[in-house]
Amino acid sequence: MKTRKSIIEDIKVLKANHKTLKEFAKEKYIDENDVANIDVYMNEKSVFNDFSNPNDPEISNELIDYIESQAHYIPVTYPINIRIHSEKELDQELISRKLKEHYWKQLADQDDDLKNNGIISLILFLTGAVLLSLYFIFQFVEGINLVFNEIFSIAATFLIWESVDYYFLNRNAIKIRRLDTAQLAMADVEIIK
After folding, report:
1. Per-domain boundaries in the chain
2. Which residues neighbour 14 within 8 Å (Cβ) at sequence distance 6 or greater?
3. pLDDT tens digit string along 10-27?
4. pTM recorded for the entire structure
């Protein structure tokens, strides 16, 4: 049975024998013009969701999932070109417009998430600050139950900590997702027969 130390050593050897993620992305996706190419091979699958309105179709979830799984490894500094290989005739303009629409909707949703994150962080911080102020005020008031006053202190500390966590950690994750989405929203689409 392997020990923790041997597993850590195995991981170091594994990392030493493989490329970095940046090298992998450069080799697999990036061309000589510094453009990241994602190749999609369409067989019998449809580009559009079967349940969407034929007059205003939505891109299929399988296609979106595949594109996002490939784009995950591409640094946001590279523009993306989605190359769809297909035997059948596809409307490049429609696919491009629908992909951009999909990612612009996600981008707008993430903008709302950032705004809500800021508002919730501010509310948590202000509530914590008010409770902390009450805690300090009640320190000097006689007849206030000490346990009751400590509850203010604990609640204030918790709320202020949550506001900092919500603002700095959650907001950062939303911003990273937003950058990835923006990269895909600006992607070019090319149909290759």
Report:
1. 31-192
2. none
3. 777 777 777 787 888 888
4. 0.78
